[in-house]
Design goal:
Length: about 400
């Protein structure tokens, strides 16, 4: 891995170094009292890394320290990567955003929508508008997740074997056909719900490109960007760099190691999950966010046109609504007032409404193991927080990171 370190004095890019120290001071307490075992924070401005710190252990059981080259399960931070892959194909004319999903996955031609009843005896109706690729990119397709526990449709997903994993023996194509056979949560385009939509989008990428998702991402994104440690599985030679996975103990709240669930990252996946299957390092994901901040290009490699990135990172929800107005309840540690959704990213429209220090026009997302990133194109900032605690709703890490980063900006 290339050298990865702080590249510029904070004062040269508008940060107060003493105020930046507050980030580490604050999050060290999470480790010292047992809520986390370790973390990594990366902050860059104008393409230069201005703050890079680690604390605690990547594996408490083995007493291994958190290091710059630690490998993390990215979970839903896979979604922006898959969305970029899809939009690369869009730029090549492979599809239009208004194309029906059934053009690429025929089983979605016959989906039905939940209207009432129970998970055991659902009452459904036909779709009034086909599910479109735009719906997948914006999570307005009517799909859901079994782990959300907010609707009878979520329970139907769980009964079908979709909660934190997928049924044995199904690949991505098989999962898409199974999801298409389950009721939609709502008519496509009428609401927002976090969902398996990006996994379905990954299958669209496969069909449209004629390549498996892992091949497409490796050849078109990871290789060109130099993301040398990112993929759907941690190679055996790098297993020692993988951070252990944790969940809070129900009694003490302390992070408890989950070796069984965590070991999945070391095995070849049955399902290439574009919505949650990637593993990688801070250095790699930093290159991905820098590519976005620079309008689709990094170090002479252009993945997307500048107008495409601008389009993806606008709020696409009808009427400029935010996620609290248009969305179902979110599996998150914070509300999303003033935050809309674009093509693969949440988009901050009004930080005053959000009640969190930040910048309008920033875009962001996170992963189920409490990881998070954002890109601020106005202030030319990218930020990254990596740890491995399931679920992400356990602690308000993301909003706290925002306030601690922006309070240190003094230019």
């Amino acid at each position: 891995m290339p050298t990865f370190e702080v590249q510029v004095d904070p004062s040269e890019v508008g940060f107060d170094a003493r105020r930046l120290d507050r980030i580490d001071e604050h999050f060290r307490a999470y480790v010292d009292d047992g809520r986390l075992t370790g973390w990594l924070v990366l902050l860059a401005r104008r393409g230069e890394v201005v703050h890079l710190s680690t604390y605690g252990r990547r594996d408490a059981g083995a007493d291994l320290p958190m290091e710059h080259d630690t490998i993390f399960r990215m979970y839903s931070m896979s979604k922006p990567v898959t969305s970029v892959a899809a939009m690369m194909l869009y730029e090549e004319g492979a599809f239009e955003l208004k194309d029906p999903v059934s053009r690429f996955i025929p089983s979605f031609a016959d989906t039905r929508v939940f209207r009432g009843g129970s998970a055991v005896q659902p009452v459904t109706e036909p779709v009034t508008e086909p599910m479109l690729i735009w719906h997948l990119l914006t999570h307005t397709a009517g799909l859901t997740y079994g782990f959300q526990y907010s609707s009878p449709v979520d329970a139907i997903y769980r009964s079908a074997g979709f909660e934190w994993g997928t049924p044995p023996g199904l690949d991505l194509a098989g999962c898409c056909d199974r999801w298409a056979s389950l009721p939609l949560l709502f008519q496509p385009g009428t609401e927002w719900s976090y969902s398996v939509a990006t996994d379905v989008l990954g299958r669209v990428v496969e069909v449209a490109s004629g390549r498996s998702l892992d091949e497409f991402l490796a050849e078109r994104i990871f290789g060109p960007l130099g993301m040398v440690d990112t993929g759907f599985q941690v190679p055996a030679a790098d297993a020692g760099r993988l951070a252990a996975l944790y969940m809070p103990d129900p009694v003490t709240g302390a992070a408890a190691q989950q070796d069984g669930l965590g070991a999945a990252a070391l095995q070849p996946p049955e399902v290439l999950s574009g919505g949650g299957g990637l593993v990688g390092t801070a250095a790699d994901y930093h290159r991905f966010t820098e590519m976005l901040r620079r309008g689709g290009e990094l170090d002479g490699v252009r993945l997307l046109g500048t107008r495409t990135v601008d389009y993806m990172t606008r709020n696409h929800l009808p009427g400029g609504a935010d996620l609290e107005e248009f969305g179902r309840p979110l599996f998150a540690e914070t509300t999303f007032d003033g935050t809309g959704f674009g093509l693969g990213f949440a988009v901050v429209d009004d930080p005053v409404k959000a009640k969190v220090l930040g910048t309008a026009g920033s875009y962001l997302w996170g992963g189920a193991a409490s990881t998070a990133f954002w890109v601020d194109p106005v202030e030319e900032i990218t930020a990254l927080f990596l740890t491995q605690l399931l679920p992400s709703s356990t602690h308000p890490i993301r909003s706290q990171l925002n306030q601690l980063v922006y309070q240190a900006l003094v230019d």
